[in-house]
Amino acid sequence: MSETSAQATAAVTEAAAAASGTWRRAGLAGAAVGVVAAGAAAGVAVERLTVGRGMRRKARLALDASGPYGSLRGLPGKAYAADGTELYYEVEEIDEAAPEGSTATGTRRRRLFGRKTPAPVTVVFSHGYCLNQDSWHFQRAALRGVVRCVYWDQRSHGRSGRGVEQTESGAPVSIDTLGGDLKAVIDAAAPEGPLVLVGHSMGGMTVMALADQHPELIRDRVVGAALVGTSSGRLGEVNYGLPVAGVNVVRRVLPGVLKALGQRAELVERGRRATADLFAGIIKRYSFATRDVDPAIARFAERMIEGTPIDVVAEFYPAFQEHDKTAALSRFAGLPVLVLAGEQDLVTPSGHSEAIAELLPDAEFVLVPDAGHLVMLEHPEAVTDRLADLLARTGVVPAAATVGIYGDTGSTAQPGG
Fold first, then answer.
1. What confidence tens digit (pLDDT) does each residue in 322-334 have?
2. Could you tell me if 189 and 98 lie in one domain?
C-alpha cells in the first residue's frame, strides 16, 4: 500500500470515527448514521489530507458571499393551511413594461395576452424535501416576466412557519397534508385562471396529493403539469446506492433514529456543525451525479439542506414510506405532462419516473444523462428547455420562444424511454 493510500485509509477511518463518536456523545444511534455516511466519507477524507478545516470554512463563506443563487425575490404573500400553518409564497408577475422590439419579456407578454383575459396562466412551483423555493433558481431566472409564476415554501421549510399540527400534537406530516397546503397557496395566490403545476421530488408528490383530493381543480383549471425527479409510491424499496446489508440496516433503524434525533434537536444541530465537512460530502453524493459540479451550486444546495432543522427532517420522513398516489395520476390523463428525471438519481431513481410515464402514455418522458436528484440545479438548461416546451404545448408561451438565457423551446432534448 502506498503512503498516499495509507493516509487516505487512515483519514477515512478518522472521519468515520469522528462522526460516529459525535452521534454517540449525543446519545444517538451513530452506527446508523455511519452507514449512510460511508459512501461519502472517502472523498471527504482525501480532501482533508491537503485542505485544512479553517481553509474549507473560509471557502464556504466565500461561496456564500459571492454566489447569486437563491437571491431572486418576488412579491411576497401568505396563505394559511387547514391547521393554521403559515405558508409563505412569492409571485413573479408578467412584465408589461418592456418597450416594443426589445429583447425583454414585455413583447412576448403582449403577443401572448394582447387580448383581455380574466386571468393569465399561473405556473405553480413546489419544491422538494429539505429544500425551499430557491431550488428553482435557474428556472425562475429564465421565466421572470415571461409567465406568471408562484413559488412557495412547504410547511416547516424555508420562510414558511413550522407545522402547527406537528408542533402542537407531534403528529408526523403526511403527503395528503402537503396537498392541502398546495390548495391553500393556490386559493391565495392564484384563485382564478389556468394553472400549470410543477413539482420536484416531494413537490411532485404534493401535486399528486392535490390531484387526489381535488380532481375538479385538475379538470377545470390545470392545463399542464411537470413531475421532476419524483415518485408515485414504493419509496420503501429504494436502496440509495447502498449495499444490501447497509440498506437493510438503514430501513430497520432509520425511522427510530430520526425520531430520537428530532427529540434532541439542539444537541444534534451542534453535532451537524461539528461534522459539517462529512455531511457536505453526503449532500453532494445524493444531490448530484456530475463530478465537477460548480462548487457554488453544491454549496447552495448544502445551505438549503443544512438549513432544514433535524426535527423537521424527522417529521417528514415517515410520509415517504407511506406515500402511494399512483391512482391519482389518472387525473392528468389527456393533459400535456412532462416527466423528467436524472438518470443517476439515488433518492428517487429514474425507474420511478419511468413508472409514472407508463401510466401517462401521452406524457413527454425525459432522462437527463449524468444527472442526480437535484437535476434542475445540476443541468438547468435541460430542465428549463423541457419546461419551456411544456409551456409552449399548453399555449402559455409561443412555440420556439426564447426563455431567458437558460434554454429555449426550439432546442432538442433527448427523450428517455
1. 999 999 999 999 9
2. yes
CATH number at residue 356: 3.40.50.1820
Whether the predicted model's global pTM rises above the 0.70 cut: yes
Closest listed residue to residue 305, CA positions, set 328, 329, 288, 326: 288
Q: Is residue 375 part of a domain?
A: yes
Q: What gap in Å lies between CA 378 and CA 381, rounded to an integer?
A: 9
How far, in Å, CA of 147 to CA of 398, rounded?
11
Q: Which 8-state DSSP code applies to residue 331?
A: G
What DSSP state is assigned to residue 233? B
- Note the pLDDT tens digit of each residue in 372-405: 999 999 999 999 999 999 999 998 877 655 565 4
Cell numbers linked to 86: 403559515
Strands 86-92 and 148-152, how do they pair? Answer: antiparallel
Classify 294 as helix, strand or coil.
Answer: coil
Domains held by the chain: number = 2
126 vs 152: CA distance, rounded Å:
6
